[in-house]
């Protein structure tokens, strides 16, 4: 059995980046659906603008092997609420 056999797709949501955060606006994606970007652990996925500042959102530390971008749920310029889906990643 290969290690990737146990891996499941993962949906990345907008995390709460500071107390009282409600939403943000996607400033820039660093990944693409087509052709699908292969993302590595710790790689930056997007930058999000909030009332406080611009934050970079990386691949979560729970991902320790390469994944591929399957779907972007939002586009640059879109507003997104905390907890809302951003991107679907699937095992590479």
Summed up:
This protein is mainly beta. It has one domain: OB fold (Dihydrolipoamide Acetyltransferase, E2P), CATH 2.40.50.100. 0% of the residues lie in helices and 43% in strands.
Chain-wise SSE layout:
Blueprint: E1 10-13, E2 23-29, E3 38-39, E4 44-49, E5 54-58, E6 67-72, E7 79-81, E8 85-91
Antiparallel strand pairs: 1-8, 2-4, 2-7, 3-6, 4-5, 6-8
What does this structure look like?
- This protein is mainly β and 92 residues long.
- The protein has a single domain, classed as OB fold (Dihydrolipoamide Acetyltransferase, E2P) (Beta Barrel), CATH 2.40.50.100.
- Helices cover 0% and strands 43% of the residues.
- The protein is built from no helices and 8 strands.
- It has strands at 10-13, 23-29, 38-39, 44-49, 54-58, 67-72, 79-81, 85-91.
- The strands form 2 sheets. Strands 1-8-6-3 form a 4-stranded antiparallel beta sheet, with no helix packed on it. The protein has a 4-stranded antiparallel beta sheet with strand order 5-4-2-7, with no helix packed on it.
- It is globular.
- The mean pLDDT is 93.
